[in-house]
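Example 3.
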Amino acid sequence: MNKSENMKDKQLSVSAIKEGTVIDHVPASALFKVVSILKLDELDTMITIGNNLGSKKLGKKGIIKLSRVFFRDDEINKIALVAPCAKLNIIRDYEVVEKKIVEIPDEIIGIAKCVNPKCITNNENVTTRFTVVSKAEVKLKCHYCEKITNRDELQIT
Amino acid sequence: MNKSENMKDKQLSVSAIKEGTVIDHVPASALFKVVSILKLDELDTMITIGNNLGSKKLGKKGIIKLSRVFFRDDEINKIALVAPCAKLNIIRDYEVVEKKIVEIPDEIIGIAKCVNPKCITNNENVTTRFTVVSKAEVKLKCHYCEKITNRDELQIT
């Protein structure tokens, strides 16, 4: 094995993101749920993910860098369900031009499962739909059966 | 925004992996299926993922670096279902000590869905089980209903 191959293996350096979105301070346990919520597996642009990185705030955190991808507020706020303290850096021309936080929306469509096994959404092909009755405690009220799904019962579809 | 913050945003450099496994040459469309097959969302060790990176061989590829994680052959070979040309670099003390390829196993348990909607595995709580009847063409024969699931019908559970 030659020396340059050695150097390559020592460090995964990712080219600077010229423009795009960095999602930081994702709890490590939520990283792949964020991938699922934002459908990042369907992207064809460059994406870098680090997970279980050390974090003073979170203990362990994840970070996602998305080249040439930007989100509307309603798109990115969905991740607040699982990553309420996530921080967004919007990058243009290699510079951070905007910093944003995420906020749980008032309604959640098609992301979370209803905790009630008898709910129509768990038995028919009906997209889940919830009103957020408590943003602080992440309590979701099902539009169909009206049962409350709590934070610790939350499963991402 | 200060200068050091600027520098941080320009490059995601990940500390050298002292020991672990690098999975390279994963087709971009298969990257998150590999995450699912290997249950990488359940890890608590550091993981770095790049996807849709340029590749002469594959057009676009994904790469996964797993700190302090090693796989038995039977564990890692499962990914050959979706990433038949994946290359593994085993890292010890910052050096590549071994290079491996993956090979589709003879039997696939609990990873793929049976293409037959009437199969018991799609209707009862029964773990899927297949014999690989063609490794070259990725043809899986269901242990229960004996239907063949082809490569293009393959869905990861």
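Chain A is about 10% helix and 35% strand. The first strand of chain A starts at residue 12 and ends at 14.
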